[in-house]
Amino acid sequence: MNGYNLLLFVHILAAIVWLGGGLILFVAATRLRQSATDIQTFAKILPYIGIRLFMPAVVLVLVTGIWMVIADSEWGFNQAWVLIAIGLFVVAFAVGGVYLSRIGIAMDRAAGSATADLPALVNRWMTGYAAVLVVLLLVIADMVFKPGTS
């Protein structure tokens, strides 16, 4: 195994954590939002998971992706698929880092005070995360098909 393969392994593993973990949370939210007690638990655990699981995974995806482009002479920042990947990453990061993190914080606060806003906040989170999941699927397609390469 060489250094590039290790970077690729970490990159793919982090992407799996990001996509798979988010998909599981999305499916769980679909089920848990039907119960007031369950939705409060979901709202309290979401920020915990976001900071400890998703944030490191997102950072690893970005760092290892950039590192692989720099390390391999076959890839370059002027290639269409690399530019598409970076653009889609920025979109997913912006939705997750700005929109979803604010909703997660609001959900955590609402769960602590048992307000009626919690179901609406969970629905907003689900809508935002559905957008992130679509973007991540587009990134996977971009990585597999590498448009612009022969």
Task: Break the fold down into its secondary structure elements and pairings.
Layout: H1 3-32, H2 36-71, H3 80-113, H4 118-145
Helix pairs in contact: 1-2, 1-4, 2-3, 3-4
Describe the fold and architecture.
This protein is mainly α and 150 residues long. It has one domain. Helix content is 85%, strand content 0%. It is built from 4 helices and no strands. It has helices spanning 3-32, 36-71, 80-113, 118-145. Helix 1 runs antiparallel to helix 2 and helix 2 runs antiparallel to helix 3. The longest helix has 36 residues, at 36-71. It is elongated.
Q: Termini distance?
A: 26 Å
Instruction: Please give the share of residues in helix.
Output: over 70%
What is the arithmetic mean of pLDDT?
93
- Classify the secondary structure makeup into a structural class: mainly alpha
Number of contiguous helices: 4
Largest sheet: none
Instruction: Determine Rg (CA atoms, Å).
Output: 17 Å
Estimate what percentage of residues fall within beta strands: under 5%
Written as H for each helix and E for each strand, in order along the chain, the element string is: HHHH
Key descriptive features of the protein:
mainly alpha, about 150 residues
Short description:
This protein has helices at 3-32, 36-71, 80-113, 118-145.
